Amino acid sequence: MKFLVVGLGNIGLEYANTRHNIGFRVLDAFAKASNLVFKEDRYGSVCEFRLKNQTVIFLKPNTFMNLSGNAVRYWMQKEGIGIDHLLVVVDDLALPFGTLRMKGSGSDAGHNGLKNIQQMIGTDKYPRLRFGLGNNFQRGQQIDFVLGEFTEEENQTLPARLELAGEMVKCFCLSGIQVAMNQYNNK
Asked: Tell me, what CATH number does 145's domain have?
């Protein structure tokens, strides 16, 4: 079986350490800890590896956040991956910083990356791992907040949260979404 794990973010050095790129950072942390290397391919940076008896493909789209659906659809079709073997790692302003929550489906909640994925694959019924950013910004400052960098305090706790997100990805691929949600949500 194959799994496609997509980390959402924006390409370019100016976005590398922004909150909005947490999807990329989750995949990068997992890859670094596992000595995996991404290579440039169609629609993004890709890393394929074996996790016990599963084949896992990590994808960091190079289409910019708001057009992520093009990359997701392409790689799902190319690799013959069903909707239940797709996991999208995304930032979420509705969750407190560092909160990790896996869901089997749901609305885009105003997130343009999720909105585009839904449009391109024709459904909102796909698994996602939401990484909380919090909402510590004034009204009208949402874009500046998500495109801003983490605070020093957040950066101190970020490695442990990235590691836990990686464990959730592993659990999803090896045991399924229900087990991953039951074991990790609200930790």
From this structure: 3.40.50.1470
Whether 20 is catalytic is yes
Which of 3, 6, 9, 20 does the annotation list as catalytic? 20
pLDDT in tens, 10-61: 999 999 999 999 999 999 999 999 999 999 999 999 999 999 999 999 999 9
In 31-185, beta strands by DSSP E:
39-41, 44-51, 54-61, 86-92, 100-103, 128-132
Token digits of residue 179: 């087990």
- Higher model confidence: residue 87 or residue 107? 87
pTM: 0.95
Q: What is the rounded distance in angstroms from the CA atom of residue 177 to the CA atom of residue 91?
A: 19
Q: State how many domains the chain has.
A: 1
Structural domain range at position 82: 2-184
